[in-house]
Amino acid sequence: MGYISPDGLANLKKYAYKGVDKSLLSRYVLNPFWTWLVTLWPTWVAPNVITLSGLCMVLLNFAMLIYYDPEYLSEKGGADGPPHWVYFTWAAGLFIYQSFDAIDGKQARRTGMAGPLGEMFDHGCDALNTTLEVILTGRALNLSRSWWTVASQSAALANFYLTTWEEYHTGQLYLAVFSGPVEGILLIVGLYVVSGILGPTFWDTPALTFTGLEKIPFITKYVPNKGLNEFIMAFGAVVLAFNIITSYINVYKAKIASGDKAFQPLWHLLPFPLTVAIQVAWLSSPSFSRSFILNSPLFVPLLCSWGLQFAHQVGRMILAHVTKQPFPWWDWMWMWSLIGAVDANMPRLLNRAPFIQHSPENVKIFIFATLAISLVSYVRFCALVINDITNYLGIACFTVRKKDESGAWKKAQIVDKANVGKRQ
What we know:
By secondary structure, the chain is mainly alpha-helical. It has one domain (6-419). The protein has 15 helices and four strands.
C-alpha cells in the first residue's frame, strides 16, 4: 500500500519550491561559499547523491562514537568519553553535512532535477541528522545519559516539527535570522571544536565562575551558578520559544491572507507533544528503578527509535505538503512506543508488574525490537514514496535522468545556470 493517493500524485506536477532565508550569515558569508562549492560537482552527479553523501558523514560521526567510546553504550556509561581528536572529526563531518545540504538544491537547478522528490529526500536526511546530533552533542557537552539529553532531543525535534508544520500551512520554508540549519549547526560545530581542545568536562565549569559574574552579588542572587552546558540548554529553550512565536506569526499571516481560519492550524501541533509524552513516560517508568532506561545502555537505542519514528512523522507531513493531501494526524508507528510506555508503567497504573517488560532482559529485547521495527518501517516509507514519485514523474532518484514520452531514459537537460547561486 502506497502513501500517495491518485490525486496526490497528480498534484506533484503542480509543486514549486518556495523559501525565505533571513539569515545574514547565510546570505553574506556562507552562500558565496556554497555557490563556489557546487561548481566542484560534475553535472552528472544527482542532487540526492550529494544529500546522501552529507548524511553519510554524520553516520560516520555516530559510528566513531560507538567505536571510540564503547563504554558510553555499556553499563559503565563512559565517564571519560572518546579521544579528544574525535570531536574535531565530528565538527568537520557536521560542517560537510551542512555544506552538502545547502548545495543539493543548487545542483538540482544545474541539472534540471529540481522537484518534490528532492525536498522529500532533503528533509528525510535532516530529520535523521537531528537525533544523531542530539546524541553526539550531548556527549560533547558531557551531558551523557541524562534528562538534559532528553530535553535536548525534545527541543531539537520540536524545532524541526515547527518548521515542517509552518511549511505545510504557508507553502514555503522559512529560515529565520537564527535557524537550526545555519546558525544552529555552526554553533554545534563550535561546541565540538571546544570539546576537542579542552575536553567535554570543560562544559561542567560553572557559567558565572567562567565569566567572572559570580563576583556581582546582584547576579548571584537571582542567577544560579550552573554549568556552561546547562546554560546552553537554557539558550536552546529561548530559541525554541522564539521559533514557536515566529512560526505561528508566519502561519497566521498566511491564513489571514488566504481567508482561512487563523487558529485552526494550532490543532496540528498536538501530535508532537503527544509523542514526546509517550517517550518521556517510557523513559521515566518505575520498573526496577526510576529512570532505569535512562541510566542504562538502552538509552541510545531508545533515542534512535524515537528519532526514526519522528522522521516518519515529519516525512508524511512533507509528503502531504508537496502532494497537497490532508494533514497526517495519526502515525501508526507511535503504537509500538505507546505499548512500551503503558506496559512499563503498569506498577504506577495498576500496581502490578509489566506484562512484557517484567525483567531487564525483556526490556532490552523490547527496546531493540522497537528500534528494528522503527527502522524497517521508515525504510519502507522511503522506498515506497521514492518509487511512487519517480515512476509518476519519470525521473531517477540517484542519477541525472528523465524519461521521454516513449518511456525511454535520457539525460536531464542542464538548465537554469543563471540561478545556480540561489539557495533552494
